[in-house]
Amino acid sequence: MMYIVDGEQPGLFGQKHSNRDYNLADSWGKNQFNSSFPASLVAYMCSKNIEPVYLLTDKKNNVIHGFISAEELLGINPLNENAYYSFEAGYYPYEKYYSAKKREKIDLVMVNRETGFDVSGLEVKLTTLPDSTTKDSLEADYGSEIVVRSPTILFLACSMCACFDSPEGKNKLHDILNTIGAEIKNWSEKKFVLPHYEAIKKAVLAVSSEICGEQTPLIIQPIWKTDRTLTDLDENCLDVFVWSNLSVIQMCLRESNDDDNISRNQRTIIWLYKMLWDFSLYGKFNYTDIVNELAYDYKTDKAFAISGKLTNPLMRCEELEKPRISKYEIKNIILGNGQKLLRPERRFDAYLVSHPEIFKL
Prior knowledge:
With 361 residues, this protein is α/β, with parallel strands linked by helices.
């Protein structure tokens, strides 16, 4: 059903061309909003010449901060007439690196309408600040929980494979990965894999160090900050952080390990190694088989989660403590009274629906 809200056509800033029709109520559901609003937040920040904070790694695999333009992030200026926002879509440049029972979709694919080419494929994580582990901390110590789904690791692996996409590159990757892959006789059994975990991690970090000059954006993480009572948005409430593909590896490594078991985070590193190992041998890896056979007693819909206490040291900066977009600018991003079509099933939706005054001032 198509809606006109109070005589206005609902929409989101910057999205002139998209596979979501914001005249339809279904386009404002919780899953849709959590990726479409962040895309428009990036576009809005671009219009104000505010660049997202970029988390990337150096040669020693330390997480460092920089800034990234919207055009570099998305592969095209988000306000360009040729920018097409394709949500929950396949990202063709990565599909040659893996096989799977079904085509995996990434949260946001930007397409250049003039050429028809996919110019970026990105995961989107809309997160609240602070989370339950940091809500009683000083503002400088606030952090956001991030939940990383399994297909994100697929896209991470593909982005790394792209750096070795030649016969010489595959041989080089194989050499960096060492002989661990051949030494493990049964990848599905923890007892055969766990003794090799430290060597697996070391090899993955060696690959990361080798390609640190070629890292690319992978996760867009907008934050929305609440006040100390957790009942209202903070005056300065919105900003965007971007994780490079290699910084996601560092996110995964921020946990204490159990020497007698394989944790979700360790499993993620094992998945990544196996994907890279198979690519170095065959030029492609079977994503479905790796994830299902290397489950290690966990469900496979989620790779891992990291709490705000652990993300804060990686994200800590002025922009985290004082986000650059105020709550009174949200009305410039959600257009045509689109907020009235939101279904407050998640907290950010609920805040917007229960605080109509920010759309009037």
